[in-house]
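Task 17 of the worksheet. Students: predict the tertiary structure of the chain below and write it out as structure tokens. Keep your answer in the requested format; marks are given for formatting as well as content.
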Amino acid sequence: MAAQIQLVRDQHIVPQWHLRKFADIDGWLWRYKQNALAKRSRPKGECWARDFYEYDVNGKKTENKYERWLSEIENAAAPVHEALVNRQQLTQRDMVAWASYVASLFLRTQKVRSQLSAAMLQKFKEHTQSQDFVCDLQYDLLKNGELVFAQNLRKQIEELRSNMDSSPSYHHLSSLHANTSLLGRALMAKAWEVLEAAPGKFFVISDCPVTTAELGSGRAIAGTGFGGESAVVVLPITPRHVFVASSSAIRWKSVGPPAAVDATNLLTIRFAQERVYAHLNSTEIKALVDVEINHITFGKDAFIPPEQSREEQRASVQ
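Model answer:
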């Protein structure tokens, strides 16, 4: 009899190896939450949830499918992290691995699931309930040489809506592969930089660590899509280093001035859902967390879902 595979139940949302980069010399993180004292914690005990990447819909179980896939992405990205910090030349394979990691790290968070994914799900349900939806979708399929009976389309749509209603994680997870690929391609089209913090300054990380902003006209608008020409994607990778993907027209200083480090930390804290982490206890960071954490709401004032295109609707029901 074959041995039963032991499933991973406690699943990390931000990988432990990434959090360990922000630990102090003794391996401790300082964890900040709103209106609570900063506490020391181990990376293993942070940013995880029970069965976060699992669902059971109509007897169909994921059984660590997404956990294994994300682990492969993490493992491929870990050595690239070191290459970035050491400013080594990246191969095409390295760049694909890192782009996939950054994209998946943004999408896999609790905040994306609870805010952005929920908003997009509501949009999808509204679209599919309209009287003209099936007719329009059938017509679009026919133009591409596919004849699908309206009754079959309605059945597929009803089944999809039923699956979404059965599990809050279904919509989020079922779209994770495609969306990671989409955001990864947007990152590959940008210029990459690793910037250092000014002396005496440091970067923090959070439970939603990938942030974006649109730069233009002397101001920055937080929470813009990855693909925009003026969109900047930011990920702290150590207390001293931050990864930045942006237009090649933007010229960055290799060592960010104090104001730039402060602005990066403010963006990180505003994107965070509940927790911010640093390698030391800082009254300045604590004060910012109390006032600014989760200041940005996905789907409301950041990453506002556009009207879903017919191509996306078609992909959803196929």
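Marker's comment: Residues 307-318 have pLDDT under 50 and may be disordered. The radius of gyration is 21 Å.
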